[in-house]
Amino acid sequence: MAKATAAHEPLPPLLLLLALLAASYLAVTRLPAAAPLSALLLIGHPPLPAPAPGHSDSSSISSCAGFYAGAGPARAVSASVEEFGAVGDGVTSNTAAFRRAVAELEERARDGGGGARLEVPPGRWLTGSFNLTSRFTLFLHRGAVILGSQDPEEWPLIAPLPSYGRGRERLGPRHISLIHGEGLNDVVVTGNNGTIDGQGEMWWELWWNRTLNHTRGHLVELVNSSNILISNITLRNSPFWTVHPVYCSNVVMKDLTILAPLNAPNTDGIDPDSSSEVCIEDCYIESGDDLVAVKSGWDQYGISVGKPSTNIVIQRVSGTTPTCSGVGFGSEMSGGISNVLVRDLHVWNSAQAVRLKTDVGRGGYITNITIANVTMEKVKVPIRFSRGADDHSDDNYDRTALPRISNVLISDIVGVDLQRAPMLEAVAGAVYEGICFRNVSLRGIRRQDRWHCESVYGEAHGVFPAPCEEFRNNGSSSWCGFS
Ligand SMILES: *[C@@H]1O[C@H](CO)[C@@H](O)[C@H](O)[C@H]1NC(C)=O
Ligand SMILES: *[C@@H]1O[C@H](CO)[C@@H](O)[C@H](O)[C@H]1NC(C)=O
Ligand SMILES: *[C@@H]1O[C@H](CO)[C@@H](O)[C@H](O)[C@H]1NC(C)=O
Ligand SMILES: *[C@@H]1O[C@H](CO)[C@@H](O)[C@H](O)[C@H]1NC(C)=O
Ligand SMILES: *[C@@H]1O[C@H](CO)[C@@H](O)[C@H](O)[C@H]1NC(C)=O
Ligand SMILES: *[C@@H]1O[C@H](CO)[C@@H](O)[C@H](O)[C@H]1NC(C)=O
Ligand SMILES: *[C@@H]1O[C@H](CO)[C@@H](O)[C@H](O)[C@H]1NC(C)=O
Ligand SMILES: *[C@@H]1O[C@H](CO)[C@@H](O)[C@H](O)[C@H]1NC(C)=O
Ligand SMILES: *[C@@H]1O[C@H](CO)[C@@H](O)[C@H](O)[C@H]1NC(C)=O
Ligand SMILES: *[C@@H]1O[C@H](CO)[C@@H](O)[C@H](O)[C@H]1NC(C)=O
């Protein structure tokens, strides 16, 4: 904690909290990574001045190390999927081979406890959905492509998530993800940039044609699991949200390339949902929906499950999404979202760089959020708080359950070729307070356009163009980096 006191300004609450958490977490797990993780959360971060002496090389320590505490990609036992009869011709269905491989490797690793690794060699490996297991690595070699089956029955139906109460798109059960895991510990999906391609077009067409019977599956979903590392792979053409950790903790997603056509519906890149200790870094994402969306359940179902998304770092993400946002919060946020640090985000040709999206009936909160060093080009609305589209799980949502939004620090923002000034609207009946803008330069906004604020209040320091009245109280609260 010495580093904290070395800073010349007091720590904002989020950093202090994250640092304390990091310290206690590391004390428990005794990881050698203690210094890097706490340093990550303290150094080079906006309301702080220059890095503390002796820590000028912040690039080498700004990593997700410490969030994943599993054994890593190497395992005691390993085998190629070919051993289980898989054929990499792009035509043969390998569903049974993948399922057999995971079950058999789990068995072989049982005695040693060192876990197992399934290798996918170069080739085109068509498969339906299969489940992962604990202490397990799925390793995709360069040139390996896992292809999602085109038969909907190969994506069987599973129960909806309790925090959604139904499938997100259709009532009742939902299609399982292509690669799935539930109740697991220590799972790694990695490789030398091999590919998982969901071949989602069939599903997008069902959506466009309004002939979808059940909610589409994700490309990769982990439910109620901990110590997950997904890295060094390319994920393409997911039917629905691409990577979905839900009710998980200690999740690292790094060095990922996520691609979907820019018009492919709901192909979000990474959606941490009711999950904690999540770190996303160095990802390039282009898709038809948010690059990253932090969520926590839907209306009364999310409220009753009450599992927040908390302690999340999202750094060095870049990409484009013409109709959605670089980083989104919500619109499902009924379990609460807190302690999120987004930094070094680069977004272009997109609808928004950052959007907080909620709705009446959501309840929940979004608080202790820091968004720093965002660069954007050709973005329609750089920063947006929006009211959602009256999108509910069913008619039994609580009309008095308003979202609470507070303590949001947005600093060091540079945008060029923009169209609109920030649009900040609270959900009808709610008031959002404690929003701080510092060092924000937004250029290329249409001549007559002004900031648009409705029931959203806070402070602004060094902001161009001039903010709305609601941000001109000349305050200097601690949340905004003042003592
Ligand atoms: C937000 O930060 C404040 C100050 O550190 C802390 O008291 C509060 O518990 C945090 N809120 C949540 C929901 O984590
Ligand atoms: C995979 O896991 C899900 C959820 O735990 C379960 O419903 C499904 O039956 C499993 N599939 C297989 C093939 O074991
Ligand atoms: C979550 O997984 C653990 C095993 O890791 C299991 O004991 C627990 O019952 C699961 N919780 C739920 C809600 O399924
Ligand atoms: C991985 O593959 C993708 C898709 O081909 C490519 O765009 C990306 O640059 C590759 N990443 C690395 C690190 O080679
Ligand atoms: C969707 O409709 C188009 C045009 O009618 C058709 O070509 C396509 O096969 C349909 N897709 C699915 C998956 O039903
Ligand atoms: C949807 O349901 C209809 C009617 O039961 C069925 O004919 C069709 O094959 C189903 N489509 C899919 C993709 O499962
Ligand atoms: C990803 O690949 C790079 C370069 O091949 C390698 O140095 C790094 O260890 C890999 N990272 C992970 C988390 O697998
Ligand atoms: C800001 O983020 C960009 C990536 O978008 C990165 O190249 C740059 O180094 C960051 N600046 C600081 C001061 O960290
Ligand atoms: C304002 O933010 C930009 C972009 O991150 C950064 O380059 C610049 O140093 C910041 N200025 C101050 C005074 O912090
Ligand atoms: C805020 O400060 C500016 C510059 O010092 C001053 O012009 C303005 O009147 C102040 N606004 C309020 C509401 O006090």
Description:
- Belongs to the glycosyl hydrolase 28 family.
- Pfam families: Glyco_hydro_28.
- Keywords: Glycosidase, Hydrolase, Signal.
- This is Polygalacturonase.
- Residues 1-29 form the signal peptide.
- There is one protein chain.
- With 483 residues, this protein is mainly beta.
- It is 13% helix and 39% strand.
- The protein has six helices and 26 strands.
- It has helices at residues 2-6, 13-29, 34-42, 95-109, 201-208, 299-305; strands at 77-80, 116-120, 123-127, 130-131, 136-140, 144-148, 157-158, 174-175, 179-182, 185-191, 195-197, 220-223, 226-236, 243-246, 249-259, 276-286, 292-294, 309-320, 325-330, 337-357, 365-386, 404-416, 423-425, 432-442, 452-454, 456-464.
- The protein has a 20-stranded parallel beta sheet that branches.
- Strand 1, helix 4 and strand 2 form a beta-alpha-beta unit.
- Helix 2 runs antiparallel to helix 3 (34-42).
- The longest helix has 17 residues, at 13-29.
- The radius of gyration is 22 Å and the shape is globular.
- The model is unreliable at 1-13 and 20-61 (pLDDT under 50).
- Bound molecules: 2-acetamido-2-deoxy-beta-D-glucopyranose (10 copies).
- The site of one 2-acetamido-2-deoxy-beta-D-glucopyranose has 5 residues, from helix 5.
